[in-house]
């Protein structure tokens, strides 16, 4: 494995924590003579990076181009370049991470948080909020990250005083100084932690809003006027938090993988403006910011404060991080003319950059990448016979994809083994890039099969909504002749398809399988729990029903779910029953 990046890391970390405790535990720690002067700084932030080191393709629609282009988005080394450029251009910069730094790729599977800590150490991260996925491996998961991090991890509403391994390792907040002016950063974490992760029983979660207000009061009593809430509770809860407390200036959030900003011209659907301005109880404005997920974006907020600590102006400029190579939907290089058009479009696009990689961070990442590549050759299972893949069933493969039902089953198993009690999993064929040959299945095979590393999102849906979803997916294929990757596969959901019928009458005989394996008619008025990948949850491939529903993004990744499934099953065979029966 990779040796420690810095032999002094433990000493630096504990010195930092000692200083932090002095600052946070003593009213005079911030200085009894707090400067009264205006201050300006650039706030950089990320969240839910989920161990994503390298770019993954994401379809963007550029003005002047007829079809969407799969543009690689996300890269720790390119993000580091933007962070460095900002520091070179601005005298005062604060860089924060809103949690879920880990879990989601082989980098975490193999190195347990060490790789993530090293790259963010090199970027000069100032502080990180604890996220739920930091506890997916219990106390050991968060400890591995803490042991290698040279930045503090904060959470005010997480009480670890009864845990001998964590006590004193996670502070409620930090106090940093910008041009001599103290700025407090308070950490907050969702109270759903025990339900969606694996924290130790000794850990106690206190109410978010109450704890935030009590901590703000304690800090303002020390004459600290600029307060940032660094939270991992989700966008909607962040807005509620901003409305409910007094004394906070900025909420930097994560957990919900929320895209904010003006990106409609790229074919994206942001959930709100960047920043989202919320009016607090005392009538002051609080700025709420998120930075999507998976190192795809670097949040940037320039803020000017007057001498009393009041925000007098602000400007948001979040930046999508693009990379290369530029390929078409068949993973072939774009023709030179289209490549040039896309590069020009990226250069002209507001809120998008194609930076060169930062050499120092690229070197660190490459050290781990070489081992990830080596691990890709590890055999995790076998295919008893070929498991071919096709998007839409045709006369050559009337039963459709042999691998898609198994992928769908793996999603259901993953979330149910983590206590979510899902009834149905739906997998689109476009999310699967290839079939599996008979013989050995390696880790590389699985990552080639599911390269997008979508997260798993759970919805509450009525039987009628499920039927509508199936009808919409088929209509996109049959009527619109598009979204062929949207053909649905689902273990635990059976239905008949009549492609000759009109829209609304193509799906019939829907059945759902209960926990004992028995099949029952789908009740249009009953509610079911459905898991899909995050691409479908966002309305992709014609699944527009999800646009009107509120889902819960678990943060679990489809690639990892299928890897675990193959490792457990050892041998894969074609499914005994397909989810659909096509009527000629």
From TrEMBL:
Residue ranges annotated for the 5'-Nucleotidase C-terminal domain, each copy included: 398-547
Pfam families linked: 5_nucleotid_C, Metallophos
SUPFAM superfamilies: 5'-nucleotidase (syn. UDP-sugar hydrolase), C-terminal domain, Metallo-dependent phosphatases
Location of the Calcineurin-like phosphoesterase domain: 43-258
UniProt keyword list: Hydrolase, Nucleotide-binding, Signal
The protein's Enzyme Commission number: 3.1.3.5
Example GO biological process: nucleotide catabolic process
GO CC, one annotated term: outer membrane-bounded periplasmic space
One annotated GO molecular function: UDP-sugar diphosphatase activity
InterPro entries per UniProt: 5'-Nucleotdase_C, 5'-Nucleotdase_C_sf, 5_nucleotidase/apyrase, Calcineurin-like_PHP, Metallo-depent_PP-like
Superkingdom, natural source: Bacteria
Family named by the database record: Belongs to the 5'-nucleotidase family.
PANTHER family: 5'-NUCLEOTIDASE, 5'-NUCLEOTIDASE-RELATED
Protein name: 5'-nucleotidase UshA
């Amino acid at each position: 494995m990779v040796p420690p990046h810095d032999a002094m890391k433990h000493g630096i970390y504990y010195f930092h924590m000692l200083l932090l405790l002095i600052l946070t535990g003593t009213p005079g720690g911030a200085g009894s003579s707090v400067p009264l002067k205006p201050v300006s700084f650039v706030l950089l932030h990320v969240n839910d990076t989920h161990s994503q080191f390298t770019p993954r393709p994401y379809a963007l629609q550029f003005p002047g181009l007829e079809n969407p282009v799969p543009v690689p988005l996300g890269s720790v080394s390119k993000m580091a370049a933007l962070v460095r450029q900002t520091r070179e251009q601005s005298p005062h910069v604060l860089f924060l991470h809103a949690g879920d730094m880990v879990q989601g790729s082989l980098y975490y599977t193999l190195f347990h948080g060490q790789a993530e800590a090293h790259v963010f150490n090199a970027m000069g991260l100032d502080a990180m909020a604890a996220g739920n996925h930091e506890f997916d491996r219990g106390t050991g998961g968060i400890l591995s990250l803490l042991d290698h991090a040279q930045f503090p991890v904060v959470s005010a509403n997480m009480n670890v005083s009864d845990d001998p391994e964590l006590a004193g390792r996670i502070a409620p907040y930090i106090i940093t100084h910008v041009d001599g002016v103290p700025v407090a950063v308070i950490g907050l974490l969702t109270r759903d932690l025990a339900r969606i992760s694996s924290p130790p029983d000794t850990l106690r979660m206190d109410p978010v809003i109450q704890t935030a207000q009590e901590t703000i009061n304690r800090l303002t009593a020390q004459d600290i006027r600029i307060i940032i809430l660094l939270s991992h509770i989700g966008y909607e809860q962040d807005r509620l938090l901003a409305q409910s407390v007094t004394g906070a200036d900025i909420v930097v959030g994560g957990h919900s993988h929320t895209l904010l900003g003006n990106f409609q011209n790229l074919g994206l659907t942001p959930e709100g403006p960047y920043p989202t301005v919320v009016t607090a109880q005392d009538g002051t404005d609080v700025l709420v910011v998120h930075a999507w997920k998976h190192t795809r974006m670097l949040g940037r907020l320039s803020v000017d404060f007057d001498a009393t600590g009041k925000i007098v102006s602000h400007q948001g400029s979040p930046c999508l991080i693009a990379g290369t190579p530029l390929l078409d939907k068949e993973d072939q290089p774009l023709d030179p003319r289209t490549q040039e058009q896309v590069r020009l479009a990226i250069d002209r696009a507001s809120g998008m950059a194609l930076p060169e990689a930062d050499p120092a961070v690229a070197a660190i990442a490459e050290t781990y990448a070489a081992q990830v590549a080596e691990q890709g050759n590890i055999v995790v299972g076998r295919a008893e016979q070929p498991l071919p893949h096709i998007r839409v069933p045709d006369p050559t493969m009337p039963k459709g994809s042999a691998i898609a039902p198994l992928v769908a089953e793996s999603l259901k198993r993953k979330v149910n083994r983590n206590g979510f009690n899902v009834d149905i999993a739906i997998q689109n064929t476009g999310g699967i890039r290839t079939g599996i040959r008979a013989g050995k299945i390696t880790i590389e095979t699985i990552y080639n099969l599911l390269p997008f590393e979508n997260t798993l999102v759970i919805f509450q849906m009525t039987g009628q909504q499920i039927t509508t979803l199936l009808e919409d997916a088929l209509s996109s294929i049959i009527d619109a002749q598009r979204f062929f990757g949207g053909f649905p596969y689902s273990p635990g959901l059976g239905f008949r398809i009549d492609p000759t019928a009109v829209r609304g009458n193509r799906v019939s005989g829907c059945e759902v399988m209960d926990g004992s394996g028995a099949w029952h008619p789908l009740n249009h008025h009953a509610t079911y729990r459905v898991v899909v990948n995050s691409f479908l949850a966002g309305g992709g491939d014609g699944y527009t029903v999800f646009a009107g529903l509120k889902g819960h993004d678990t943060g679990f990744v489809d690639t990892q779910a299928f890897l675990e499934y193959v490792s457990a099953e050892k041998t894969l065979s074609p499914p005994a029953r397909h989810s659909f029966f096509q009527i000629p």
